[in-house]
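Weekend entry, working from home. Most of the wet-lab plans are on hold until the incubator is repaired, so I used the time to fold the two sequences that have been sitting in the queue since the last round of cloning. Logging both here for the record. First:
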Amino acid sequence: MTDQYHAPTLNGFIAGGDHERRPAVLVAAFEGWNDAGSAASDAVRSILDTSAAEHVATIGLDDYYDYQFTRPTSKLTERGREVQWPQTDIYRIAQPGADADLLVVLGVEPTFRWQGFCARILEHAAAQNVRAALTLGALLADVPHTRPVPTSMASDDPGLQEHFNITASSYAGPTGIPSVLGIELQRSGIPTMSLWAQLSHYVAQAPSPRVQLALVELLEELLPVSIPAQQLREDAVAWKLGVDELAASDPEVSKYVQQLEAATDASELPEASGETIAREFERYLRRRGRYRTDGSGPDFEI
């Protein structure tokens, strides 16, 4: 099955182009309103934690943040007490075996001057020859923690829609910096798509390893990255068991979770296509190869 089908990737999307300079794929996530459970920022941070990254630039400090709204933090280090200011950093990760490098944008949603903030990122995207972009977000939703994490991909770009068999988002309403940046990237001529995951609103506190894991697995499908996730998978299992125990101890919460489960199970589900089955089989083989050194033993169930 996997000999006949391979999930589409962002590298594959830009591979056919004629590039005078080494291209890059931009990946962005921001702490704040569109980062429920810190799942999106933690997923992108996991790329940096497992890669040799070159720091390109820092955006922020006094230009874009209200420190009464987004407070700096302090900690004691070997050099004395230091202040960590909210900011956004840009890193480039070389991918010699792939068609493009990664340009990772990770930081905190700015308080004001969003257009100027996005313009700064676009300047660095142009300088780094970004040819496609992916923004990540996580949102609170009426979904049960006992079911698979709902995820979605969308794009306004016709080429990406065809390549990934996705559509434009139908959402209209208040928005955050991932969406604003995505719109500005698309307007500048950089094909951009978004990836979102949903977190059960009754367990909104960070971290949320189960939702982070769902995003990490999709990042591995879309990008030429391999992120060691065995500990994250174990954390996700422990997280779910912990929430199960908390829900079981409160009859009202338990009843509410059951209602969400019933609504989720009763919702109309698309019939599984050959492409969907092949994608899931590829994901299963990737997990099996990573976590089973002898080819035996059960997979983790989350």
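Second, folded right after the first finished:
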Amino acid sequence: MDLQSSESIQRFLDGLSFSRHSTYGGNTTSLEIRDKEDRLILLDSGTGVRDLGNQLMEKEFGKGKGEAYWVMTHTHWDHIQGMPFFVPLFIPGNKFEFHTAMNKLEERLRYQHAFTHFPVPLDQYLAEKTFIEHAEGESFNLGPHISVTSKSMRHPGGSFSYRFSEGDKSLIFASDAEFNLDEMDNIDQYLEYFQGADVLVFDTQYTFEESLQKIDWGHSSASMATDIALRAGVKKLVMFHHDPSYDDEKLDAVFLRALKYKEMFDASGRLEIKMAYEGLEIEI
């Protein structure tokens, strides 16, 4: 290897398992989406959103001139616990438009900020906040370019998947979704929703064997995700919502196993599989 060549070094790193040169990270669910004019859409508010908030403060949001849409799948703690530490919410002048297919989102978030849970009430976050609820399957717009539809997922307490479309490009976020053998017998109702997505971010918390022992725990396996992605003609599957008990080496093994499973049913390589990690960026 030529240590003076950045290309040579990168080729060497690419040949290693991910855990040999990096880490998948340990923050809980939060995603950032940008449309073609760089408008910001936030998706859930797990612990990862704290770092994003600090980055946003360096630009318009630090001046009270930031605007963003915020889409919420559900309010289990790992999907909302970063919001109290999202600094742009404290800044007067910033505007956040919350969208969800669940009911009573504002009431749920206020409960997280009850004094018995957190010392700062939601009303002391001085940014402008509006809350808009949508019926499942209703199409709504986030700015002039992105349209969104939702679909209910099987998960304790309920959770919603969202399909984001801009022109002929589409991204589906479907975390906290349980698909087991029983669900696969009735998969047709979901295949139309997943059909032809450019990117499908999907819940793959368990191995297949673990999923058989954890029925109704609300999460899926990589093999189920791969089956669904192939049947729906998805272009890129992103394995997401890693089990918090897994270390990086275990996640490497889970990823390699998913690739081998895919090879058995996708000899032509129609489907690309990626493993989610903190800082992953995908351009569609």
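Plan for Monday: verify the second prediction. The mean pLDDT is 92.
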